[in-house]
């Protein structure tokens, strides 16, 4: 007779491991299945985000920024001169690997502390809420479950014109492990991943060209913020070619030539390395047996309702394999919601208020609606903008690029969106998320006491500016 669990979670990424821990905390007998093998040859928890995504990329972004400041004169203004600054790329990558190892080990410790059973191998949902686990040596075990949470995550999309060879042509995972700085680096895709990885290697000395098929830069971002970002990244040395459709590639003598078309016709460029960062696709193939009854759309996403329940009672799906943005924090909150709903609680997600961040320098972050969305919806709105150039704290840090932009409803004054490009943008937008969760108005934020001097004051001033009350910049004259 097979072993039975109250909850079996397929996948131990930021959605799966969080769901498993919360389910166990609620008294449910819980197992979590993971097949990913880390660099040490053992099963590693944490999914893409922890192993080859959010965390390692932030480690490299921070290391590369420190090098850039010291090497390229960013410290001179502080009276600090640094000569002979060099970068030891293997040491930088080794530090990144150690951080990943510490955190994946931390998840394993949390599993033990909360009584979650780890099942190592490939998980597959069968009919009647049975789950099959195939270990790395091919051994198959079937478990019974009262509830199943599928959290199998996503994987980088590969494209036929630039087939990965994991040497000269790599995906985001390969780009985290370069052992030397490529002289010329090509990036296909000017999205979050492409810009972050392009920034890392650009700061370390690569000549970076980003090829983006869309004619518009960062189409999901507020237009004013996106324009500022394009100007800033170009100034930093990233060559961003919009409307560039890659048609093919050729590897010769350790270099890769990329063929593409743009407004000027057919083009080609040769690089030492090419990163393909055109997005991610859900991992749902091989996760569902033929007779499970779980519905999938044509792109491989599992159909779920607002509470992440699939078409089969007792089977849930969360994270990158369902609708909504492919973000770790969205997956984690869905995991908690599902675990709590299984025991009869009634939490729900605020899908309209999921913040997004691009961890370049300056950071770009946003939550809620942007101007182009509100225009298309016919909503009357007002805008308050405060530039970091007028922030005393930003001046002290020599980091004055960018702005905070707050959008509020013209009639009710309710905050509809917060958009930031600049220092600590992610942290400032999070303040906007909290305010918006509580239905804050721009006036509410304007009446709140912010400590001085802080970067947060820029949000305070943007809220005041929305109503023409900004103190530290001139207010727009009302028409």
UniProtKB/TrEMBL annotation:
Gene3D superfamilies (alphabetical): 3.30.390.30, FAD/NAD(P)-binding domain
GO cellular component: a single term: cytoplasm
Pfam families linked to this entry: Pyr_redox_2, Pyr_redox_dim
Catalytic reaction equation(s): N(6)-[(R)-dihydrolipoyl]-L-lysyl-[protein] + NAD(+) = N(6)-[(R)-lipoyl]-L-lysyl-[protein] + NADH + H(+)
One annotated GO biological process: 2-oxoglutarate metabolic process
Active site as annotated: 452
Domain FAD/NAD(P)-binding: 5-335
Binding residues annotated for NAD(+), in chain numbering: 189-196, 212, 279
EC number(s) recorded for this UniProt protein: 1.8.1.4
Record keywords, A-Z: Cytoplasm, Disulfide bond, FAD, Flavoprotein, NAD, Nucleotide-binding, Oxidoreductase, Redox-active center
Record: residues binding FAD: 58, 123, 320, 326-329
Principal place of residence: cytoplasm
Pyridine nucleotide-disulphide oxidoreductase dimerisation domain boundaries: 354-463
PANTHER family, per the entry: DIHYDROLIPOYL DEHYDROGENASE (PTHR22912:SF224), DISULFIDE OXIDOREDUCTASE (PTHR22912)
Subunit structure: Homodimer.
Recorded family membership: Belongs to the class-I pyridine nucleotide-disulfide oxidoreductase family.
UniProt-recorded name of the protein: Dihydrolipoyl dehydrogenase
Species lineage: Bacteria, Pseudomonadati, Pseudomonadota, Gammaproteobacteria, Pseudomonadales
């Amino acid at each position: 007779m097979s072993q039975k669990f109250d909850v079996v979670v397929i996948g131990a990424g930021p959605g799966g491991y969080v769901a498993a821990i919360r389910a166990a905390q609620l008294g449910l007998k819980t197992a979590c299945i993971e097949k990913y093998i880390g660099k040490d040859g053992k099963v590693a928890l944490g999914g893409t985000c922890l192993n080859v995504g959010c965390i390692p990329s932030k480690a490299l972004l921070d290391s590369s920024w420190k090098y850039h400041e010291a090497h390229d004169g960013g410290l001179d203004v502080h009276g600090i001169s640094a000569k002979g600054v060099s970068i030891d790329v293997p040491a930088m990558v080794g530090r990144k690997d150690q951080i990943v190892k510490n955190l994946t080990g931390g998840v394993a410790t949390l599993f033990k502390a909360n009584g979650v059973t780890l099942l190592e191998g490939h998980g597959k949902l069968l009919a009647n809420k049975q789950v099959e686990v195939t270990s790395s040596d091919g051994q198959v075990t079937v478990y019974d479950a009262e509830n199943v949470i599928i959290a199998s995550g996503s994987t980088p999309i590969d494209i036929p014109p630039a087939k990965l060879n994991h040497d000269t042509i790599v995906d985001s995972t390969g780009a985290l492990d370069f052992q030397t700085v490529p002289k010329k680096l090509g990036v296909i895709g000017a999205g979050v991943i492409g810009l972050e990885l392009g920034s890392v290697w650009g700061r370390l000395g690569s000549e970076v060209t980003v090829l983006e098929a869309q004619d518009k830069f960062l189409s999901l971002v507020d237009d004013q913020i996106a324009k500022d970002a394009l100007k800033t990244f170009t100034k930093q040395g990233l060559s961003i070619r919009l409307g560039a459709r890659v048609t093919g590639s050729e590897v010769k003598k350790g270099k890769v030539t990329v063929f593409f078309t743009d407004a000027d016709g057919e083009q080609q460029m040769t690089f030492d390395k090419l990163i393909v960062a055109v997005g991610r696709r859900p991992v749902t193939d091989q996760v569902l047996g033929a007779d499970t009854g779980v519905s999938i759309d044509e792109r491989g996403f599992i159909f779920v309702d607002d509470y992440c329940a699939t078409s089969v009672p007792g089977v849930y799906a969360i994270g990158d394999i369902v609708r909504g943005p492919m973000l770790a924090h969205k997956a984690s909150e869905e995991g908690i919601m599902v675990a709590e709903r299984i025991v009869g609680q009634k939490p729900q997600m605020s899908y309209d208020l999921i913040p997004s961040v691009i961890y370049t320098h300056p950071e770009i972050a946003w939550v809620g609606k942007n101007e182009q969305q509100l225009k298309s919806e016919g909503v009357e709105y007002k805008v308050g903008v405060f530039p970091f150039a007028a922030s005393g704290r930003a001046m002290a840090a020599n980091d004055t690029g960018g702005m905070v932009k707050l959008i509020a409803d013209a009639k009710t004054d309710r905050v509809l969106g917060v958009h930031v490009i600049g220092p600590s943008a992610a942290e400032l937008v999070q303040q906007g998320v909290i305010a918006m969760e509580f239905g804050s108005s721009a006036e509410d934020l304007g009446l709140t006491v912010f400590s001085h001097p802080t970067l947060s004051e820029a949000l305070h001033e943007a809220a005041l500016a929305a109503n023409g009350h900004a103190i530290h910049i001139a207010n727009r004259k009302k028409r």
